[in-house]
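thought: fold this chain, then report.
action: predict
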Amino acid sequence: MGKGDELGTVEADTENPRISELTGLVAGLVAQRNTRQSEIESINVQLVHRRKELVDQRQRAGVQQVADVQGARASLAVVVADLERANAALKESQRRVERADNLRSSGFISPAAFDTAKAEEDQARAAHRAAQETAQRAEVMLAAARQGVQIEGPRGLPCAVTRGQELDFCN
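observation:
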């Protein structure tokens, strides 16, 4: 600032030290304002960039959720087929035990053959229970995928969140 320069409504056209001091203060405030304004512009640029990242993350999360639901449906279909096979095997083993019991009563098979049929039934029953548990887990996984919750597996997102929630707190 020089003598005679216009600065707002104050003109530095005198040798008065108070005016020179005020002129210096005003110049400092103008410099601070310019610095703050450039900081604000920088923050606005960062904000635009982060908003774009957020939109991209939401889009990826939506696509991932659709893929998760489709995968969970496919897994459930496989598990239901396994459960049906286990159910059929259990029914067949129960039928064999019933037939073996009748034959044992008549003396046509040995107690050891009956015990073998009974053990096969126990194995089929255990396989059926395991298939039921797996089916229940697959149903839970499908329900979770529909709600956007990822229960297991690697996360497709940069932080651990449910896929249906806002991703603002990931940063």
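thought: worth noting. The longest strand covers residues 6-7.
final: tokens above.
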